[in-house]
Amino acid sequence: MKNLIIYILLTCSISFSCRNNTKNQPPQVEKPINEQFYTSDFSDNFNVELEVKVSKDDVFSVFYLTDSFEKYFIGEQAIGVSVKGSETIQNIRIELPKDTIPTRLRIDFGNNSEQKNIELIAIKFIFEDKNLIISDSIFSKYFEPNINVEPEEYTKIIRLKADAEGKYDPYIIGRVWLNRKLENLTNY
């Protein structure tokens, strides 16, 4: 009988001491990386969120293609949002229409020609419970700027300028690498 009591006590103490005790462990710190997927609580629609500092009022737009064979971005497949100028970083979220799965994207940085610079920290692509974050250090891998956009090397600053003919239409278009990431993000 004494052996049985010792056996039960020993078994109980081992099972309680071997369980996963997370109360005494320090919290896990997620290391920042330049590109990552993570879950969120946004809507099921595809969203593009810009973390940016914009000093003047403007309108930012996202143009999208939903078919791999489409070649040109058109106004019917664009969503614009008014941006209030501020010296602080703001998150500008543009939600695409319901059931829209983009295969290619173009991000327009407004039409206010007085806007000379913006500070672009990150671009987030959000779909259902998954997100993809592209930070400033790898923009050139994923985006091709047009002639009106001049990223400053090693900074978050993007210079916006008119072309030689005075036309002002600054935008970036997703490269093949971004298109592949978007496909991974939207496939189940």
UniProtKB/TrEMBL annotation:
<protein>
    <recommendedName>
        <fullName>Lipoprotein</fullName>
    </recommendedName>
</protein>
